[in-house]
Write a structure and sequence with these properties.
Blueprint lengths: L1 H37 L5 H24 L11 H26 L4 H24 L9
Helix pairs in contact: 1-2, 1-4, 2-3, 3-4
Length: 141
């Protein structure tokens, strides 16, 4: 019984970041394609805000339902969780936009966008794991 529980905890430690990464890749595709399309009609920083927001919305829904589904200390799509997600997302958006702005001066716009995406991935996982989808009083997480 204890060995099974340990295996489950270890599997979660491996599968959770993998699921977050897979969803992150989908978010990245959404973000990048939307950014690319929006560049024809608006400046890069505004395009970044809109495209990032599309990817972030997808992230919240899929990570709530798939990646962190076992953390049931509060309802899946609760108002508190949504507010925590919005706060983390605004921080990641600031990091993304700041990185984009910095690298626009030295790289072509689409390469600068790639750098901004890479800069936000690790921060996004850590903050979502520890703040948005924290395991409030849920054993084994």
């Amino acid at each position: 019984m204890m060995l099974e529980r340990r295996r489950l905890v270890m599997a979660r430690r491996v599968l959770r970041p993998a699921a977050f990464g897979a969803i992150g890749m989908l978010n990245t595709v959404i973000d990048f394609l939307a950014f690319w399309a929006l560049l024809d009609v608006m400046p890069p920083l505004l395009a970044n805000v809109l495209s990032f927001s599309l990817g972030a919305t997808n992230s919240f829904v899929l990570n709530t339902v798939l990646t962190f589904h076992d953390r049931r200390a509060e309802p899946r799509l609760s108002r508190r969780r949504a507010l925590r997600f919005a706060s983390v997302t605004l921080g990641c958006l600031a990091l993304s936009s700041g990185t984009l702005l910095l690298f626009l001066h030295v790289l072509p716009v689409l390469y600068a966008k790639v750098v901004s995406i890479l800069a936000t991935f690790a921060a996004g996982y850590i903050l979502n794991d520890r703040i948005v989808f924290k395991a409030d009083n849920v054993a084994g997480n």
